[in-house]
């Protein structure tokens, strides 16, 4: 994903239509919730009547990729 805003909901849902699981890799760690990319991908799938097992990974905090 090159552009986060506006998020390409339809394109993401189309690309993920045949997957069983999705891992979202976020570079931010919000307190008490999942990352922004995870939320947007989950929303894209739900809005298109799709479902997949989803997990969220946080990486690269503090510039240590």
From TrEMBL:
Residue ranges of every copy of the Pyruvate:ferredoxin oxidoreductase core domain listed in the record: 1-65
Membrane-crossing segments per the record: none
Pfam family, one: PFOR_II
InterPro entries: PFOR_II, Transketo_C/PFOR_II
Record-given protein name: PorA
């Amino acid at each position: 994903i090159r552009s986060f805003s506006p998020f390409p909901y339809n394109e993401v849902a189309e690309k993920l239509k045949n997957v069983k699981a999705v891992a979202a890799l976020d570079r931010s760690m919000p307190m008490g919730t999942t990352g922004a990319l995870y939320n947007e991908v989950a929303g894209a799938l739900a809005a298109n009547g799709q479902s997949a097992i989803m997990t969220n990974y946080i990486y690269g905090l503090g510039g240590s990729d």
